[in-house]
Amino acid sequence: MFCLQPDPTVAHAELLPSAPPVGLSVATAPLPSLQAPAAVVMVRPHHFHPNPETLADNGFQSRGAPADGGALAARAFDEVSAAAQVLRDAGVTVHLFEDDGTRDTPDSVFPNNWFSTHPGGRVVLYPMHAASRRSERRADVIELLKARYRVQELIDYSGLEADGLSLEGTGAMVLDHLDRVAYVARSQRADPAVLARFAAHGHYEPLVFDATDAQGLPVYHTNVLMCVATRFALVGTGLIRCPAQRAQVVRRLQDSGREVIELSEAQLREFAGNALELSGRSGPVLALSARAAVALTAAQRAAIERSARLLPLAVPTIELAGGSVRCMLAGIHLTPRPVAAA
């Protein structure tokens, strides 16, 4: 099991939203949606590089070897820094942690895979498929959550790694916190036994389906296939090859009152499905990568913007590792402590 011991080699810098604009007081600012958190955890890597251990089953990861590792790492550092600032400017609280490279954690920039938070005060730790990713779990992140938010329960599934089981958090699952549904594309990163435990503990309905790309490779993480926001859902339905499963996913989303915005496989390759709705100072925003925003059609943009403002973040270097903006953001669905709010 994961031992929560402080790590003196890591650092944390907190980026709080700047003051509300004139005419908008804190008291009148929009309240966060249960689906769209107002705060996130991010990790800024100092020695970023695509992880060779995850290449076999991640069809979104770049196959080309970078020519200059130092330049690549510098660009990734700058991209995370800039993305955190854009989020802060939009009114999102960013808890920014540093990965200084003292551990071999090439995918540390994607913290949403090893932990998740849930309304009611639950924090969940997950078993990771790749051995190199298991060192990403950090005691200082959990301690920050305990100090700044009301954490009632910590559930740790990480010990199941010894049995060869994995469930990579809100990468493997796309969670509907409103209707309590866990959408899961079958893969070796989403073991059904661990999913059953998570669903039972958290009172989620697991909706499991098969999704494959044009080469027949299973989609490695559900969150590159779909995004569930408060009033809409982005879904690459074409990769759900079974008509009955496809209809079930679409029907369940529509039954929850959401507008289903379908994405093509080409748009998924631009990470258009790897987005996260957040609660900003002036209302909901949809954080997604700059290339994903460009890939959307005018009709899709209009459908999204009926309920959330697009917030593009330029992260092309990070995307070489096979994940994008949603993977970089671990949403905080916890109640802030009064001292933190002050």
From TrEMBL:
Keyword Electron transport: no
Signal peptide (from-to): none
InterPro entries for the chain: Amdntrnsf_FN0238
Gene3D superfamilies: L-arginine/glycine Amidinotransferase, Chain A
UniProt keyword annotation of Transferase present: yes
GO MF, any single term: transferase activity
Highest taxon above the source species: Bacteria
UniProt keyword annotations, A-Z: Transferase
PANTHER family given in the database record: AMIDINOTRANSFERASE
Record-given protein name: Amidinotransferase
